[in-house]
Amino acid sequence: MPDCLFCNIVEGKVPSKKVFEDDRTYAFEDIDPQAPTHVLVIPKKHISGLQNAEPSDAELIGYCYLVAARIAHERKIEDTLRTVCNVGPRAGQAVFHLHIHVLGGRDMKWPPG
Ligand code: 5GP
Ligand code: ZN
Prior knowledge:
The protein is α+β, with helices and mostly antiparallel strands. The chain is built from two helices and five strands; from the N terminus they run H-E-E-E-H-E-E. It has one domain (5-104): 2-Layer Sandwich (HIT family, subunit A), CATH 3.30.428.10. Strand 1 (18-21) and strand 2 (25-29) form a beta hairpin. The site of zinc ion has 6 residues, from helix 1.
């Protein structure tokens, strides 16, 4: 998707601090971290958000969560891990390429704002 920021990050047209990459996923440091660890995990395939995911995307989206868990394990933040997928502008979604926030390294509050 040419005008998609995260597609451009996957393609290297926009620089990012890569954390992990394989054939299906890309993970990178959030530019405005909200916790000591704040990584974004995205599918390389453009899916605009969970609201537009297809049944055929189920395995890919589930796999993104396993990548998130792997990163949390590597960062030793499993006891503070918060995975977040904002869906829609009123929930805070600003980039319309599905992404999972991987947050951790500090105490987390509930409910989120
Ligand atoms: P959303 O608000 O859509 O759930 O999350 C978008 C996230 O992308 C935000 O946490 C924001 O800081 C991050 N972000 C926006 N632009 C860039 C960018 O150019 N590079 C990186 N690394 N993160 C970005
Ligand atoms: Zn995209």
